[in-house]
Amino acid sequence: MNIMDFNVKKLAADAGTFLSRAVQFTEEKLGQAEKTELDAHLENLLSKAECTKIWTEKIMKQTEVLLQPNPNARIEEFVYEKLDRKAPSRVNNPELLGQYMIDAGTEFGPGTAYGNALIKCGETQKRIGTADRELIQTSALNFLTPLRNFIEGDYKTIAKERKLLQNKRLDLDAAKTRLKKAKAAETKSSSEQELRITQSEFDRQAEITRLLLEGISSTHAHHLRCLNDFVEAQMTYYAQCYQYMLDLQKQLGSFPSNYLSNNNQSSGTPVPSALSNAIGPSAMASTGSLVIPSSNLNDLKESSGSRKARVLYDYDAANSTELSLLADEVITVFSVVGMDSDWLMGERGNQKGKVPITYLELLN
C-alpha cells in the first residue's frame, strides 16, 4: 500500500514537472516569459557538436555509396549488421567481369590471340576485384566504424545530456517565474528555495554538458587519423590497380595490334603493338610501314629460294591474296619479284598467300 502511494505521488510529481516545463516553453515561444541564455562558450560548443554530427553523417553515407554503389547490397549489409551476423560473401563486379572474360577466352580457345587476351584480362579483373574487396574491408574497419561509433555512441550521449540541460533550464526559468508571481512571504520563501535548487541543478548539468562537448576536439583528432588511414587504403588500392593494368598492358603488348578492320585494312604491313611502342609514334609516322632489320629476311628476299618460318602471332587475312596465320605454326615462305618489301609469299600445304614479315621468325 505504501509502495502504491509512493508511485502515485511520483507520477503526480512527474506530471506536474512536465506540465510546468510545457507551460514555460510555450510562454517563451509567445514572448510572455524570460529565457535563461547559455553562455557563449557553451553555445559555440553545442554548435560545433551539431555541425560535426551533420557532416560526419554525410561523409559516412557517401563513403558507403563509394565503396558499395549497390543500394540493395548496402541494405542487406545493414540488416546483417543489426542482427549481429556476418553478411554472406558475394562476387563483386570486377570479379564477375573477370570470370566472364576467362570463360569466354576458354571457349574461344586459349591458343588464339583473342582467347588468350581475354583470359589475361579476366585474371587481371579478378585481381582488381580482390583489391576492391580489401579496400572495402580496410575502409570499413579504419574509417567508417569510428565515424559510426561517434554518431551512435558519443553524439547520442551528448544529445541526451543536451536535452537534460534544456529541461533543467526550463525548470530554472519556471522557478524564476513563480518567484516573481509570489506575493505571500511564505510562498516567496518556498519559491526562493526552489530557485536555489533548480539553479544548482542547472549549473551542474551545464558543467556536465560542457565537459562532454569539449571532447569534440579529441573526436576531430581521432577522425583525422582515421581519414589518413582511409587515404592510405585508397592509395594502396589505386597503386595495386595501376600495377595490375601495367602488367596486363605488357602482356598484351606481345599480341599484334590489328586496330583497322579487315575490310578497311591498308596495304601496309600490320605492326605488333610491342614493336610499335619500341620504335615510337614519330618513327611510325615517318616510315609509314615497318621493316624489321633482319639480314636473314633480306637475304631471303634477294634470293629465289624458300625457307621455313615460325609464326609469332595469329593473323587474319584481309583479303583472298593473303594467308591467315596461327601462332607457333611453321610455314614455308619465299620472295616474289615485285612484291612489297614488307611481305613474303607464304605456303601451307595447298594454301598460298601473302604474309607480313613482322609476324615471322625464320628458322635455320
UniProtKB/TrEMBL annotation:
Domain BAR positions: 27-261
PROSITE patterns, per database record: BAR, SH3
Recorded coiled-coil stretches: 158-185
Keywords: Apoptosis, Coiled coil, Cytoplasm, Golgi apparatus, Lipid-binding, Membrane, Mitochondrion, Mitochondrion outer membrane, SH3 domain
SH3 domain ranges (all copies): 304-364
Topological type in the membrane: Peripheral membrane protein
GO molecular function: lipid binding
Keyword Coiled coil applies: yes
Chief place of localization: cytoplasm
GO BP annotations, alphabetical order: apoptotic process; membrane organization
InterPro entries found in the cross-reference section: AH/BAR_dom_sf, BAR_dom, Endophilin_SH3RF, SH3-like_dom_sf, SH3_domain, SH3GLB1_BAR, SH3GLB_SH3
Subcellular localization, as worded in the UniProt entry: Cytoplasm; Golgi apparatus membrane; Mitochondrion outer membrane
CDD domains cross-referenced by the UniProt entry: BAR_Endophilin_B1 (cd07616), SH3_Endophilin_B1 (cd11945)
GO cellular component: Golgi membrane; mitochondrial outer membrane
Transmembrane segments: none
Top-level taxon: Eukaryota
Entry's family note: Belongs to the endophilin family.
Protein name in the entry: Endophilin-B1
Organism: Myodes glareolus (Bank vole)
